[in-house]
Amino acid sequence: MATAKSIDPAVNALLEYAEQESITTAFSRAEAMKPCPIGHIGACCKHCHMGPCRLVKPGQTGICGATIETVTSRNFARMVAVGAAAHSDHGRDLVFTLLAAAEGEAPDYRIRDERKLMEVARFLGVATENRGPRDIARDVALKAMEQFTSQRKEATYLRRAPKPRQEIWRRLGIAPRGIDREVVDLLHRTHIGDDQDHEHILMASLRCALADGWSGSMLATDITDILFGTPAPLHSQANLGILGKDTVNIVVHGHEPTLSEMIVAASQDPELIAYAQSKGARGINLTGICCTANEVLMRQGVGTAGNFLSQELAILTGAVEMMVVDVQCIMEALAPLSQRFHTKLVTTSPKVKIHGALHVEMDERRALAIAKDLVRMAIDNYPNRGETRIPQFKSDIVAGFSHEYLNYMMGGVYRGSFRPLNEAIVQGRIRGVAGVAGCNNPRASAHDAAHEYIVREFIRNDVLVVQTGCGAISAAKYGLLSPEEAFRGAGAGLREVCEALGIPPVLHMGSCVDNSRILTALSQMATEGGLGEDISDIPGVGIAPEWMSEKAVSIGAYLVASGVYTLFGGDNPVEASPVVTEFLSQGWEQRVGGKLEFVRDPEEIVARSLAHIDAKRAALGLARYDPHRFGASGDAVMLRWLQAREMGLPVSPYSTAGLEVAEALAQR
Fold it and tell me: Which residues contact 465 (CB under 8 A, 6 or more apart)?
């Protein structure tokens, strides 16, 4: 390859192999197929069969008379609606699983976090006194279903937002009702002959997006925690190097935790491990890709093989016996690719079939039995393995920072609070906060480059970073989810805070639906005091460095509606209309306090973000950020450890209070 397509050496090694063998990947297909220059900027309307209408000349309209403003805003709205539908439907499926578990129809599932169940029950108005967990869980599931079907009643989860934010939504008429109603409403108004005012369409887009972020996704996160446990930090590893040369390798990929959690249990079954050994394998190695990876990573410590653009490459290693997929972000190219190797590709969702893949449909009533059948099938495939090429690259990570754990780590069980975080921002130790999430895109200049650069620049400038989805996996692969990274790359103020709390400067908060955890954290920061009264007052930004999917557009829209300045790396899908582009920025900012901008240059993203954070600090009357104010780290033990590591000494920062480090340095 003339130019590296990724900053990940594991990815580049496998792309070189693909090129030698004339195997196509998303990278090579993106290079060969240029984007449509008209549709790429939102100037094509195909919403009826009089078209498609391509608006390429100034003042040109579609056959129906639709202007470029109407066309681009309708296209944008449809992306929001599809993204909201995808994430919220994920929440609906989890509601069905909770109900089945509560009613005894899904015996393999149980309530793993009763405290979270009680918290959600009280929030939804479900009686808890003198009732068992299963009875409470049943009523929680039924109440959760109402969040989808309500026709006029305001979404319950909006009450988690700061009161000033709720008032803005109601005043503007964008407080969402039932999730299903908002998705249908937005799709309806984009039909030919319906809504033809770009501002009206785009404000309705915010309402639909809010139904995703502040209802469907938030509800999904809560129920996943109830069923599988609320995450707390744990150690694991990331990148393709975690695939085992002599183990049965199973990769789970997609977004649903219901089957993947059962596959975790099946892969640990002593009988199946013995069966794998009888086939010549050392054992069973389970890994993940995309947000299914994040789900099992943050709860079970299962290592992640990579993010969205790593899915084909895992198969290229020749070491994957089975890839089990469910919904969202699954490339159809996996089927013909898997047939060139020994990998079995298995689809499991009733919503997803891929021609050429084996379909084994998930049934919650016998979930563990299905999982065991799949693991056994993977084991039987192990003797068919041929030559392998596993790149020897992997990084240690700490993942699983739920909102609940953030509360706990800053005050303990009885004094849990976001006060220490707010005070660190007020004092200037932390300059601000940034949520960096989103997909990978093969049209980016180099895979992962924008993610890695933006995150490193933020922590160097004392900005605490929280991450979800494929963005979090990107950070994981480059060591940015390691606490030690605070001592290598973070600014002095952020480093002090990380030392005091024992956290990395980049916090893994889960899958892409878990952006709702970021919303909850921002709400608590706003209500805690010292940083204004609303989310829009907080010195913070939201970033999607390599956005790709419609879900990303919905996420970006609900962040904006929540008052967050949001920047997307890459191209602008409404670029054909300067009027609509301006409304997404200035128009939305005037109404809801947040804005959406598309910026191609990662350096410009960082510059705009830091300028925004500093402007918010000034508006709050906080001290001007000074990177030299807090000096060097005060943790002498950790500094000695860092010195020892730089000298190549094999010492651990978690060992006997620095004595081992001091002795090693003395011997040196």
Answer: 433, 434, 435, 436, 455, 458, 459, 475, 505, 506, 507
